[in-house]
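Summary for the funding panel

The consortium committed to producing paired sequence-structure records for every protein in the target list. Below we show the first two records in order, beginning with the earlier of the two.
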Amino acid sequence: MIKQLTIFASMAKDGLNEALQGNKSYHIWMGSLTMLMLLGAYCYHQQLNVGLSATGMSDRVSWGLYISNFTFLVGVAAAAVMLVLPTYILHDFDFSKAVLIGEGLAASALIMCLAFVTVDLGGPIRAWHLIPGIGRFNWPDSMLAWDVIVLNGYLIINLTVPLYILISKYQGLQPNKKIYLPGVFLSVFWAVGIHMVTAFLYAGLPARPFWNNALLGPRFLASAFAAGPALIILVLQVIDRYSDYKIDKVTIRKISLVVAVAAQINLIMLFSELFKEFYAPTHHSISAVYLFFGLDGKNALMPWIYSSIAMNIVATIILTLHVLRKDIKWLNFACLLLFVAIWIEKGMGLIIPGFIPGPYGDIVEYSPTLIEIGVTLGIWAMGAFIFTILVKAAIPIEVGKLRYKNNKSVSTIEP
C-alpha cells in the first residue's frame, strides 16, 4: 500500500511538472482560463453577497442558465460511452486512442455539472441537504437523490479506471483486464443512467407538461451522443496538432459517423415532438407555443430556438453527406454548429419554456444577468483548465515518455 502511494505521488508530481511546461500558446491558453476563473469567482462572490436576486431567476422561473448548462454537460459526460463501447466491448481498437481523451472530458464535464448545481443552490452550505445520513436525502423517492448518486458514481468511475491504467503504464506494466474491465462495463450502463435519470428528473414533474414527455429520455441520449463526440472530434484534432499523441484519421472518421447517426436520430425526435405539440394542440402545448411563436407579444426565446433548429439541420445535412463529412473543414464546421445548437436546445429551448407561463397564466420572461454569465464562463474555464491538466499529464505516460524512475523492469503494454 505504501509503495502504491509512493508511485501515485511520483506520478502526480511528474504529471504536474508536465502540466507546468509548454510553449507560449499553451501558457496564454492557461493564463486566459485562469483569468476567466477569477472573473467567475468574483461574480460568484457578488452572488453570495446579494443572493440569487443577482441572477435573472425568480419565483416564476427558478431554473436558468446554471441548470441549462448542467443539463447539457451531463450529456457531454455521457458521450464517453460512445468511445468506450466500441473499444472494449466491440473490440474496435480504432477508437482506442480517443478513449483516454473521452474519459478525461467526461470527468471534467461532471466536475462542471456539480459546480453548476452548487452555484444554483444559492450558497454551498445548502449542499448538506444532499449528504446521506446528515441532510434530508430522501432516497429512493426523490429523483434528485438518484441524480446525485449517478453523477458522483460516474465521476468516480471515470477517475479510477483511467487512473489505474495510467499508474500501470507509468510503471511500465500491462494493466490487468480483470481489474479495469468490470469498471469499463459498469461505465457503459452508468453513462446511459446519468442522462436518463436527469431526463426523468424533468419528466417526473407532471405540473410542467412541457417536460412531461416519454420521449425526453431517449432524446437526451440522442443529443448527448451527438454533441459529446462532436466536441471530442474538435479536441482530438487540437491534441494531434499540439502534442505527441497522434490521432489516426480513421478514428476521426468513425467518430464522425457516430455523430452523424446520433444527429439524425435527434432531428427525427425533434420533429416527432413538434408533431405532438402542434398537430392537435391542447392547453398543455402552451409552453411550446410560447417557445416557437410567442405569447401576448413576448417572444424572447424565438430567436434562440429557430437558430438552434437551423444549425441542427445544417449540421446534420453536412454530416449525412459522405463527401462533406470526409472533408475535415466541413466536418469541423458541422461539429461546431451541432455543439452550439444542442447547447441552445438543452438550455434556452428546454429548461426556460418549462416555467412559462406560470401557474396563473402569467408570462414572466427570463434573461441571464452579467453575474450569471460571469459565473458560467468561470465554470466552463475551470472545466477546460482541469481537462487540459489531465491531458497534459496523461499523454506523456500514454506515449511512453514518462515512466516511474525507480522501476527497472519494463514489460510490454497492450495497445
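The next record, for a separate protein in the list, is shown here:
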Amino acid sequence: MFDGLDALLLARIQFGFTVSFHFIFPAFSIGLASYLMVLEGLWLKTGRDIYLDLFRYWVKIFAIAFAMGVVSGIVMSYQFGTNWSVFSTKAGPVIGPLMAYEVLTAFFLEAGFLGVMLFGMSKVGKGLHFAATCMVALGTFISAFWILSVNSWMQTPTGFEMSPDGRFLPGESWLAIIFNPSFPYRLVHTVIAAYLTTAFVVGAVGAWHLLRDRANLHARKMFSMAMWMAAIVAPIQIFAGDMHGLNTLEHQPAKVMAMEGHYESHPDGAPLILFGIPNSAEKRIDYAVEVPKASSLILKHDLNAPLAGLDTIPDDREPPVPVIFWSFRVMVGIGFAMLGLGLWSLVARMRKRLYDWSWLHRAAVLMGPSGFVAVIAGWITTEVGRQPYTVYGHMLTAQSASPLAAPAVAASLIAFVIVYFAVFGAGAWYILHLMHKPAGPHESEPEHMPVRTAGITPAPAIATGAE
C-alpha cells in the first residue's frame, strides 16, 4: 500500500517528527536546569525556605523531562545510520567527532551529577549539592553547544576538505568547523529561546495557581520570577533574532528570501510582507498585506537598499516557500506576544497589581506552551529553509538518504508515531499532573530513592531491626 510513496519524503517526515518531539524536552530542560540552579543559589544566599520548596517542586518535573529528552535523543542518533546512512558516511568524519564530544563532555557531566542533584539533598553538604546542580545546568548548556555546532556546520560549512570519494574531511583547524559563521548566532538565539520557554511554563503554572488562590506565596514567587524573565529577556531575544537573520542573509540568502516571501527581486527597496498566501506556482504572494520598503530597512538598514528574490535562484534549488513563510511568522509572532506579556507584567508590577490582575494571569496560562511552539517553528524555519541541501551548498538531501524502499520507511514512521504519542504522551500527562498540584512549604525530595548497592551503611530495615 506504500509502494507509490516517495521514500525520501517519508524519511524527511520521520526525521522531522522525531526531532520535533525531541526538541521539546531539551528546550525545557536547558532552561529548567538553570532555573533550579538560581533557586538553590537564592536559598543558600537568603536562607528563605520558599526557594528550597520551589526547587524541590520543579526538580521532580525536571527529572521526567530530562529522562524523556535522553530517550528521544537516542532515537535521533540511530536515524543517522538507518535513514541517512549516505550522509553519515560522507559527513561522518566531521560531525562524528563533534557529537562524540557532546557525549564525552555534556552527557558524562549531566549523568555524573544528576543523581546527587535529584537524591542527594539530605546526603551531601549544601555546597556540594549546589555544585552538582550547577554541573547539571552547565552540562545542558555544553550539550546545546555541541549539537548546535553540528547543526550550524551543516548550515554554513567551513573548515573542511573534500576527499576524492566525496567525503567531508576536517581541514587544518577544528576551530573553523566548530565556530562556523552561523554558530555563535544560532547558539545565543536557541539558548535564550530555551530560557524563555521555561520562563513561560513556570509563569503559566504560577498564574494557574494564582487564579485558584491569590494568597499562595509560592505561586506568587514563581510568577514574579517568570515575568521578570519575560520582561528582560524577550527584548534581548528579538535583538538576537535580528542579528541571526542578518547572518542568515549573508550566508543563506535563499532562506531569507523564502522567509520574507520575496519571489521577485526589489532593486529599489523590498516591502515587508506581514501576511499573505504564498503561491509557488505563480511565484507570488496572494492577498499580501505589506509595508513598503520595510524589509530593506530591517535587513539592510536602508529603505532603498536592493534585495534579491527567488527569481535569482534556480527552481530546483529553491526551498519550499509556504512552509518557511508561515513557520517564520509563527515564531516572530509568538516572540512579540512574549514581549507584550512581559511589558504587561511590568505595568501590573508598577501598579502593585501583579498578583491581582486575573486577565494577566489568564494570558500567562494561555502563553504557557508558546515557547514550545516558537522553538518548533524556529527549527522548521531553519531546517526546511536549508533545503534542498543537507550540507548547505555541497550535499543535496536527495543524495543523503539510505537506499530504502518506501514501505520500510513508512512502516517505521507509523511505529514511531504510535510509540511516541503513547510513551511521551504519558510522560507529558504526568508532568501536567505534577504542575496541577500547588507548590507549598516543606516540599519533599523526589520519591523512590535509589536502592543502595554498595557501601557499608546498613539498609533502613536492618538498621531499625524491622523484618
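Regarding this second record: The CA atoms of residues 211 and 358 lie 7 Å apart. Residues 16-265+308-463 form one domain.
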